[in-house]
Amino acid sequence: MSTLKLLGLPRPPTGFWPRLTGGLLLGLAAATFIELRLPGSKGLGLYGVVAINLTVAGTLVALLILNSAPPTRRGRLALWLAVGLLLTLSLAEISVA
User: Fold this and answer.
1) Is residue 5, in this structure, part of any structural domain at all?
2) Model confidence band, residue 67 (pLDDT cutoffs 50, 70, 90)
3) Is residue 31 within 8 Å of 49, Cβ to Cβ?
4) Residue 57, in any domain of the structure
5) Does the predicted model carry a pTM greater than 0.70?
């Protein structure tokens, strides 16, 4: 949020989307780091996708636990479903790798 203020950009009404975007960027950084360490890797592979999915799922769980998520019950349910789907997808990707 302070970066938005520093750049003179409008602030969103809640910190949900900037925090989620930060979690996604952290996942992309982890995926890039993992893929750089693998010999013969060309782009973000399966390990990178697993890192992104787990990071975003963790970010959503943290937002839900810290009450920074949407205030409505339907919004919270949608986020918990997204967490479940991301974790299930990650487990499926790990089993293939």
Assistant:
1) no
2) confident
3) yes
4) yes
5) yes
